[in-house]
Write a structure and sequence with these properties.
Largest sheet: 7 strands, mixed
Strand content: 15-25%
Order of helices and strands: EHEHEEEEEEHEHHHEEEEEEEEH
Bound molecules: flavin-adenine dinucleotide
Length: 354
């Protein structure tokens, strides 16, 4: 049997590393298990041209600022390189590739089954992100559609769409950015539930973070934030989206009604042939490994207070979104949540085991 460790962190992206950074300053022994062959979490697998929304100095994990980027915003590869160096700099104990298949209770411990070995831990921090749980809404007739249907998590670059008729579905940043580059090589239609809302040209993702912070603090003080005050828009006008606006392609239409085998049928009944659909429709939460603990609810989330699971002592979840701590799904936001998580884990172990 493998020795029991105090903590196993599942996942090896930015959320896991931020927790590991704080745990290494404690007396706890811990391991990070990541199913990817290299450092970088989901940034390794996003589309090639993706950049951050904010400059490097506003996109850093605790302890060490992201090095200044070549362009205004760090590229995807600059982020993965930062995460790799971060791991090395702090000698974080990451094992990869190790996929955690299930986490079950074994008395006071957790039994962590992986594709490599079985581990035992006093506490578990789940930091598996959202990328492995792409969300695609259902439309009637979808199964009959014979064209290509691709989620943005599998989209890499525009060239395979050259000369094709492509629907881009989704009115967020992913939709706008994928549309911006696919529209250069293909005939595109942008489908959004509501009219897209854009941030002013001269601000970037920092504003989204500031808005979220202001809303969070207003709510903490018991206030009911005025949406008009905080909702400036959500699409950041990164250079590719600005350029797409210049070309006049940022025109969205409401959703179609259903699919037929060669395309879609619009609300008013007209049929349109389509070669491919790119779904920029977001993600759920990659929590299949927690099934055995019976904590995942109908929303696909776990009931938490901050990052602590309410129904399973010794389990924490981080990085999935607002329900696992304020701004915990961002590079700059996860540090604060990670510090508090590490503090709680340490207290739990000294109260229950030492
Ligand atoms: P991930 O990066 O997904 O890491 C989780 C890791 O766990 C992965 O390596 C995964 O393979 C692994 N894993 C999953 N399941 C298992 C398992 N069972 N066993 C072992 N390992 C497992 N944030 C910003 O701060 N600024 C931005 O500008 C920004 N832009 C974004 C743009 C896009 C298009 C997207 C999708 C996100 C963006 N984000 C941005 C959000 C955020 O930074 C990312 O979602 C971030 O990757 C979340 O980090 P994470 O560590 O929680 O998850």
């Amino acid at each position: 049997m493998n020795p029991t460790v105090d903590t196993i962190i599942i996942g090896g992206g930015q959320s896991a590393l931020a927790c590991a950074y704080y745990l290494r300053r404690s007396s706890l022994d811990f391991l990070v298990l990541d199913d990817q062959p290299e450092a970088g979490g989901s940034w390794r697998r996003c589309w090639d041209s993706l950049t951050l929304f904010s400059p490097a100095e506003f996109s850093s994990l605790p302890g060490w600022l992201m090095p200044k980027s070549k362009g205004k915003y760090p590229s995807r590869l600059e982020v993965t390189s930062y995460l790799k160096q971060y791991e090395q700099r702090y000698k974080l104990p990451v094992r990869r590739p190790v996929k955690v298949e299930s986490v079950c209770r074994k008395g006071q411990l957790f039994e962590v089954q992986t594709d490599e070995a079985t581990y035992y831990a006093r506490t578990v921090i789940s930091a598996t992100g959202t990328f492995q749980k792409p969300y695609i809404p259902h439309y009637p007739g979808q199964e009959t559609f014979q064209g290509l249907s691709l989620h943005s998590s599998a989209y890499q670059y525009p060239q395979p769409f050259t000369g094709k008729r492509v629907l881009i579905v989704g009115g967020g940043n992913s939709g706008a950015q994928v549309l911006a580059e696919v529209s250069k090589v293909a005939q595109t239609t942008w489908v959004t539930l509501e009219a897209p809302s854009y941030l002013p040209d001269d601000v970037d993702g920092r504003v989204l973070f500031d808005q979220a912070s202001a809303r969070y603090y207003a709510m903490q003080k018991g206030g009911q934030p005025d949406p008009a005050q905080y909702n400036l828009g959500n699409i950041v006008m990164v250079p590719s989206v600005l350029e797409a606006r210049e070309r006049g392609v940022l025109k969205a239409v409401p959703p179609f009604e259903k699919f037929y085998e060669h395309g879609v049928v619009w609300q008013e009944g007209t049929k349109e042939a389509v070669d491919a659909i790119v779904w920029c429709t977001g993600f759920g939460y990659a929590l299949a490994h927690l099934e055995c603990l019976q904590v995942v609810n109908e929303k696909g989330q776990v009931a938490t207070e901050g990052t602590r699971a309410l129904e399973q002592p010794g389990l924490w979840l981080i990085g999935y979104g607002g329900w696992t701590g304020f701004a915990s799904a961002t590079l700059i936001g996860v540090g604060r949540t990670a510090r508090e998580t590490a503090r709680q884990v340490e207290n739990f172990i000294s109260a229950e085991f030492k």
